[in-house]
Amino acid sequence: MTTDRRNLMKGACLAAAIAVAGPALAQDDPLRVAMGDIASVESLNLLIAMERAEERGVPMELTYFNSEDVAVQAVLSGEADIGVGAPYAFIENSDAPIRMFYRMSTLLFFPVVNSEVYSGWEDLDGEEVTVHSRGSGTEALMRLMEKEHGIEFSNISYVPGSEVRAGAMLQGTVNASIVDAANFRLLQERGGEKFKRLPIDGVNATDEALYANTEVLEGRAEDMQVFVEELLRTWRDIDENPELVGELREEYGLLADLPDNVAAEAVPYYTEAVEGGVYPTDGGEPADVADDINFLAAAGQVESSADEVDPSRYWDFGPLEKAKSAQ
Description:
Elements (H helix, E strand, L loop, with lengths): L1 E3 L11 H4 L11 E5 L8 H12 L4 E5 L3 H10 L4 E4 L2 H7 L3 E9 L3 E5 L13 E4 L5 H13 L5 E4 L3 H10 L4 E4 L1 H11 L3 E3 L8 E8 H6 L1 H20 L3 H9 L7 H4 L2 H10 L10 H13 L19 H9 L1
Parallel strand pairs: 1-3, 2-3, 2-4, 7-8
Antiparallel strand pairs: 4-11, 5-11, 6-9, 6-10
Helix pairs in contact: 2-9, 2-10, 6-7, 9-14
């Protein structure tokens, strides 16, 4: 599997000429996955599924981009075939020909503050908070908390990587952020009572999904089915035995550059994630779209109503249905 760590800097909007450029559909070409994040243990389940798809004859390639915005642009322009994220707002605003096809994870995040600076949500009125990226589930969640608690942040900063944000909190350069379960545990272990989790209730939404250009979904249908079959198999295998993540990471030589202390967190992270229901084993269903729209609408990221939305505007469940039928 090839990994390209390019940082592609592009404008916020695509020119019309780029928007109509068709993606490469040659069957011998790899399915190119664009991830707007840094390499971390959170990526291991996806990397394992990609390796398994390769073993079945579907070449895969992963490229790390500097943000989810750039990743979605790469999918639209044909530089990538598949993206990682939940681009509901982008699809609604642009009517772009991309559709989600596999629900990778649900939101399980921990808003955290330095308790020496803040004690609750009300203290964040007029203050800066740090999230993953623009349009991400972490931003939507923090925007929702603004509304629920009647506050307004002075600024939202974007710092990809939960471990990076946790490190910034440990260093004292960030005092209010949102992290995943593994990094919340890290903050507790290293900071004790210094770091306080702020409460959130009643949130059920997609954190990350896989999406693709509709031409890719149609033109590479057989390859996509194999990939989705391996996603389902990998998610279910990890759900049954989270320790498999550590075994397969070594077997495939994945993320070999991770420091030993970070790599050691892989199995505990997936164990906690499985217990928390972070990784659904069904790949998603139309009812999830309504939950997502309700959440994003409440957070002010979309204007659609769950009562009126057509799931096919955002999702193509065809590859998932075919993959389930083949199992």
